[in-house]
Amino acid sequence: MKFCWTTIKVTNMEKSLRFYQEIVGLPVNRHFGMGTDMEIAFLGEGETQVELIYNKGVNEANLGKDISLGFEVASIDEMMSSVKEKGIAVHSGPFQPNPHVKFFYVTDPDGLKIQFVENM
């Protein structure tokens, strides 16, 4: 068995696509409509992806406050500078719980916590 994707219901597909492409750096793998009211996009390379689902009739995302998605980066300092330059506020951090890892959080357009982590 392998882990395929994480599904995130979003309230604005355009904003969410821009965030996951420009901030997180995930390329769009597939993007398609389901009728006139729904869009689905899969982002990422490799076997695990992020699936975004937009339903025109839904104006609220139901996200758990204790859930986050983590993405490894080469440099926390460079990533923090990059997100700030793009107008994304740092939610919390940076944290360095031990000499081997450093991380911080931002939130996506619907408030889901996104963690950027540097393994040192």
From TrEMBL:
Single Gene Ontology MF annotation: lactoylglutathione lyase activity
EC number(s) recorded for this UniProt protein: 4.4.1.5
Keyword annotations of the record: Dioxygenase, Lyase, Oxidoreductase
Annotated ranges, domain VOC: 2-119
Alphabetical list of PROSITE patterns matching this protein: VOC
The protein's name: Glyoxalase/bleomycin resistance protein/dioxygenase
Organism: Ruminiclostridium cellobioparum subsp. termitidis CT1112
Lineage: Bacteria, Bacillati, Bacillota, Clostridia, Eubacteriales
